[in-house]
Structures are given as structure tokens and as C-alpha cells.
Design a protein that fits this description.
Blueprint (H helix, E strand, L loop, with lengths): L4 E4 L10 E5 L6 E8 L5 E11 L5 E5 L12 E9 L3 E9 L2
Antiparallel strand pairs: 1-2, 2-5, 3-4, 3-6, 6-7
């Protein structure tokens, strides 16, 4: 993949801060989905789904450390998956420490 991604702060504490997931689409116009998974690869949170982004520069989304049901996640390793235009996938890792 020519696209790069990182999360900051990493590790992060949901009690005190939010985690930003930075990435580039590499395109002037694209559709982006960002999902988070726990260590067992069970879905935890859909941050954005089929969101239109109109820049090839670095952009970011925010994760507050909560699951889709609004409950805060436990300490551990979480993986994020960025899907760009249904053909490009970028993976990354976030460590949660409270």
C-alpha cells in the first residue's frame, strides 16, 4: 500500500483523551470507512462509514475509546481498518491503557 496511517496518542487513555487516526487516501476524492476491532478481531466500533473525503493530504478521524453501544473499551490492543473506495485497505494498531 502507498497509503500510510498512524494513531496518536498511542497508547492512549480514554478517560483523559481521544485517539486520532491519521491517514492519506492518495486521491483527490474518495469514500472512506474506518472500523475498530478487538484483539480477537470482533468488531468494536464503526468510526465513519462511506464518508466522502476530498483531499489527498493527511486527514484524521477521532476515536473516544467507546464501543458502538457507548460503553468504554477495556485495556488492550485494538486494530483499526481503513477502507478507501472499497479497494484499498490499511490496518493499524492502538493500545488502550487506563
Amino acid at each position: 500500500s502507498t497509503n500510510e496511517s498512524y494513531a496518536a496518542p498511542n497508547p492512549f487513555s480514554p478517560d483523559d483523551e481521544v485517539c486520532r487516526i491519521f491517514f492519506k487516501t492518495g486521491k483527490s476524492q474518495s469514500t472512506v470507512t474506518v472500523k475498530l476491532f478487538d484483539f480477537a478481531m470482533f468488531p468494536v466500533r464503526t468510526v465513519i462509514q462511506n464518508a466522502s473525503r476530498s483531499t489527498g493530504d493527511v486527514i484524521w478521524v477521532t476515536w473516544d475509546g467507546k464501543r458502538d453501544d457507548g460503553m468504554q473499551v477495556t485495556n488492550g490492543v485494538y486494530f483499526y481498518r481503513i477502507q478507501i473506495d472499497k479497494d484499498e485497505v490499511v490496518w493499524g494498531k492502538i493500545i488502550v491503557l487506563q
